[in-house]
Structures are given as structure tokens and as C-alpha cells.
Amino acid sequence: IDWVAVEVTYRAEFMKDDELSPDFEHQRREVRVKARKIMRRVLGATPAGARGGLVLHVGCGGRCNDGIPLEYARAGYVNHGVDAVRSYVEEFLDQGHAQLANALALPYADASFDVVNYTDILEHLFDPLGGLMEAVRVLKPGGLFMLDTPGYASIDRGRPLSYLEYALGRAFPSTLRRRLVTASWDGQTFFHTEFTARELRRLLSLAGLNILSLDNETFHPTELDGPPPRPSLLRRLTPAGSWFALARRQS
Predict the structure, then answer these.
(1) How far apart are CA 116 and CA 1, in angstroms?
(2) Residue 97 has pLDDT above 60, yes or no
(3) Which residues of 150-182 are buried (b: 16+ CB within 10 A; e: fewer)?
(4) How far is residue 235's CA from residue 219's CA, in Å, rounded to a whole number?
(5) This prediction's pTM
(6) Among candidate residues 125, 127, 73, the one with its CA nearest the CA of residue 95
(7) pLDDT tens across 194-238, in order?
(8) Is the dihedral of CA 96, 53, 128, 27 positive or negative?
(9) Beta carbons within 10 angstroms of residue 226's beta carbon
(10) How far is it, in rounded angstroms, from Cα 111 to Cα 130?
């Protein structure tokens, strides 16, 4: 797999979530939906007598992401988190242990954790495979690895032109948008990479993980108020949102 690297012009050590932004609560509710889906998969793959233990959140994120460690704590897990953003680490201390660290050099011994939670982080790494291999290193044999990352060539259902782009991209792959997406936020320049299902399967396999499930998911806050709607045929045939994978470290 060929990955494109770009120079990050600023360190993102002091980024903070804007809790006064109208998007903050919307994102927090989306994360709560994601957290419930994470926990259903993790508990579904864990015998009742073996639940609990240590979970490492790589890229633990700020306060708007606290729904995920809260779900793990309710299920009996002890939260540990690492992030490259100092304020995120400080906020995660409300949920458990946390420290400033690089995802490519985790400050833990081999086979330390029962679960590694890898949500919204793989796409930000210069070396995705290196990050996965480092996560597997600190995961116990037979431990679970939970991944959430953006899908490549997905459809933005709120933008009708996105359907045409998707159809053209399937027929003529060279017309698809660039794989690397760059953006600027709060004075910081950053990037993320989007993945196809085939690429993720290859990456996870090379890292030493056996895939238990790989689904295309969306996380809409309305799901907090009632059961999610049954996916339409179009929804099942076309990708939208994120890839949601659960894998187990090979013994």
C-alpha cells in the first residue's frame, strides 16, 4: 500500500475542544452512539466471566469523546489513554489513567492490555501499519482490538452530487478524490487518510490480527432517542460513514 506523507507545520499539543460551539454537543451525542456500538461488539466477543480488565484508548481525544471510556467503565474495564494533545490527556484523567505519548511508540510493556480501542486515530498516522503493530504489541494474546476509521469513497447522503461521484469512482477509479485529506483547524494543519475495506483487511492481517467483523457504520445522535432505522437497500449497497472493525490478536 502506498501512503502519502505530508509535513505537519505545527505541533498539536495545545488544541482544545470548543465546548461553546454548536457542533460540540452534536459530536458528543454522535460519540455516545458510537460508544454503545463499540461496547455491544466488545461484550459480544467476550465470555461473561472474562469481561473487564485493562483497556487502552490510543488517541483518547477530548471531552467530547468521553462517552467511549464511560461505556468501558460501566462494563468493568479500567481506562488508560494516550494522546499527542496535552489538553486531551488532561481531560481524559477524569475517566482513568492517561499520558502524553506517540501512537507509534506506546509507553507500555508487551501484552499489557485486554482491549485496545483505536477510534478516530488510524487515519491521522504517518505510518498506519506501524501504529497497528505497536497497538498489537501492547495487546495480550487473544485480546480484542476495536477500530473505527473513515471509509474511502463513501457517500455523503446530505449531498446529492456525492452519489454521482461515487458511481463515477467505481467505474473510473482515477476520478476519485485524493486519498489524503488535509485541513486546518485552530491554527493547526493536519491530515487524515481514508481506507477501503480491502486495505483495512490487509493492514490488520499484517499487524497480526484476526478480523471478527468489519462493517460500514454511521453514528447519528437520533439513535440515542430510539432504535436505529433499518438500513435501506441503498444503504447496504453503498458505503457511508466509517469502517467499524473488531479483531483479535493472534495467540
Answers:
(1) 24
(2) yes
(3) bbbbbbeeeeeebeebbeeeeeeeeeeeebeee
(4) 14
(5) 0.82
(6) 73
(7) 888 888 999 999 999 999 999 887 777 777 777 666 666 655 555
(8) negative
(9) 7
(10) 17
Q: What is the 3-state secondary structure (H, E, C) of the chain?
A: CCCCCCCCCCCCCCCCCCCCCHHHHHHHHHHHHHHHHHHHHHHHCCCHHHCCEEEEEECCCCHHHCHHHHHHHHCCEEEEEEECCHHHHHHHCCCCEEEECECCECCCCCCCEEEEEEECCHHHCCCHHHHHHHHHHCEEEEEEEEEEEEECCCCCCCCCHHHHHHHHHHHCHHHCCCCEEEEEECCEEEEEECECHHHHHHHHHHCCEEEEEEEEECCCHHHHHCCCCCCCHHHHHCCCCEEEEEEEECC
Rounded Cα–Cα distance for residues 134 and 167 (Å): 37
Cell numbers for 38: 463499540
**C-alpha cell at position 237:** 449497497
C-alpha cell at 83: 494522546
* Whole-angstrom distance, CA of residue 19 vs CA of residue 23: 9
CA 192 to chain centre: 12
